[in-house]
Amino acid sequence: MPLGTIMNHCYLDGMAAINDVERSERLSLGGEAEILWAMLDFHRSTFLWKCEGLDENQLRRRSVTPSELSLLDLLSHLTGAERHWFQECLLGSVLEPLYLAAPDGELNPLDPIPVEDVVQRFLDTCDTSRRIASEHSLDEVVYSETFARAVNFRFIAVHMIEEYARHCGHADLLREAIDGAVGE
Question: pTM to 2 decimals?
Answer without folding.
Answer: 0.88
